[in-house]
Amino acid sequence: MFQKEYINLVFNSSKQERFNLGGCAYIYPYLPGKVRKVTKIEFDLKFEYETMVALWRKGFHSMPKPLGISKDKNSILMEEIQDGVPLQEFLSLYQRGQISEACTTHIIELLQKVLSEFWSKEAVHGDLHANNILIGKDIQGAWKVWIIDFGATFFGGDYQIDRSRLQIFLEHYGVSALS
Ligand SMILES: Nc1ncnc2c1ncn2[C@@H]1O[C@H](COP(=O)(O)OP(=O)(O)OP(=O)(O)O)[C@@H](O)[C@H]1O
Ligand SMILES: [Mg+2]
């Protein structure tokens, strides 16, 4: 489904360009299927790692599986979302006519489901912008949405802050709002 869109998406930019999108961290490939997130500044990633583990244990799996944290707490090892393209890039391609309306509607529906599940775990992402959501396909070839970057995530708050933040990005690209 939406094969042309998938090719436009995957070949639009390189893995390295996507890994460089981070503000406070470097993402490095680490063995096949794994990446390491390393802080650019002296900053402890223990909180982020523990939040990832808590989310994973609560049964939320539309995210990279956390695999470990270094002794100095400056880097997290996690599963790589293979060919995961940031939503920002997806929306830019949509704006340029390289992604169809139907494909975008499908992705927004998937995103809605993933977010509902995320919020149902009492989690608030805290930094839900369009580079912290990845779009791609699973191993069966079905479109999939993942959430990443849990440095500002907490449990037990009001998820409306996530919703309104994301809504701003979607409206900017002329995509109909989340329901
Ligand atoms: N597990 C992953 N698999 C594939 N790509 C990833 C993965 N984690 C991060 N990336 C890519 O690297 C970019 C930067 O990662 P991330 O958002 O975690 O860092 P960051 O924004 O610097 O973090 P922070 O907000 O804590 O400073 C993402 O936008 C994404 O494109
Ligand atoms: Mg980020």
Automatic annotation (TrEMBL):
Keywords associated with the record: ATP-binding, Kinase, Nucleotide-binding, Plasmid, Serine/threonine-protein kinase, Transferase
GO molecular function, one term: protein serine/threonine kinase activity
EC code(s) of this entry: 2.7.11.1
Keyword Ligase listed: no
Catalysed reactions, as listed in the record: L-threonyl-[protein] + ATP = O-phospho-L-threonyl-[protein] + ADP + H(+); L-seryl-[protein] + ATP = O-phospho-L-seryl-[protein] + ADP + H(+)
SUPFAM superfamilies: Protein kinase-like (PK-like) (SSF56112)
Keyword Kinase assigned: yes
Protein name per its UniProtKB record: non-specific serine/threonine protein kinase
